[in-house]
């Protein structure tokens, strides 16, 4: 779908609105940190979901994922070959060596925060450590391209370039998951434009001071191809390879990119 005349700039917010979004984002960051702390062998992904929901509600915020098009969790918990949108379950029990991607969103005072990260349960295989690291580095490359007067696909191209650079450093191939990516965000979670995680630079709407995007690369140790399970949500790699997912909500400012989903140390 072409952007055409519909939108020449990526949606932007005032400084005060960015502060409000950062308050929502800080709740998400706190929830992610709490989930990671709770993620131990023998713990179910439903228990992780309950931890996140408690943090969000205790902060006076609302989980944005819960009930979203019928989704039953406050987080997406995507373990090993699950890429995104995994449904928390009492029967999915974490084990040593699992690679866990947690995506979380919260609404505070009408503003949305959206963030994800990948971590291991206990000791991870070297390939999984590299995979998560490569995904984080790709996200950081995308964040660095959140500059005034850049175009949307300058961010996409930066993410892709970050992936290729990580491949060179790690001596591995990574699949860039096809068809999924980031998005504008504000008083709704998913807003146009869609942000691909690869592509040629210099296309799409312009970034201006106050523009906000959720930047979220998803990489695999194998294929770029995925399928959706019968639950209509869970996205898995078609070859069973493991996947990682990192995401921050980020604003363009006069002083450089601002991460609106900070995590407590």
From TrEMBL:
Substrate binds at residues 85, 190. A divalent metal cation 1 binds at residues 103, 114, 247. A divalent metal cation 2 binds at residues 114, 183, 216, 247. InterPro entries: Creatinase/aminopeptidase-like, Pept_M24, Pept_M24_MAP, Pept_M24A_MAP1. One of its GO terms (cellular component) is cytosol. CDD domains: MetAP1 (cd01086). The lineage of its organism: Bacteria, Bacillati, Actinomycetota, Actinomycetes, Mycobacteriales. Its EC number is 3.4.11.18. The keyword Metal-binding applies. Binds 2 divalent metal cations per subunit. Has a high-affinity and a low affinity metal-binding site. The true nature of the physiological cofactor is under debate. The enzyme is active with cobalt, zinc, manganese or divalent iron ions. Most likely, methionine aminopeptidases function as mononuclear Fe(2+)-metalloproteases under physiological conditions, and the catalytically relevant metal-binding site has been assigned to the histidine-containing high-affinity site. It catalyses: Release of N-terminal amino acids, preferentially methionine, from peptides and arylamides. This is Methionine aminopeptidase. Pfam families: Peptidase_M24 (PF00557). GO terms for molecular function: initiator methionyl aminopeptidase activity; metal ion binding; metalloaminopeptidase activity.
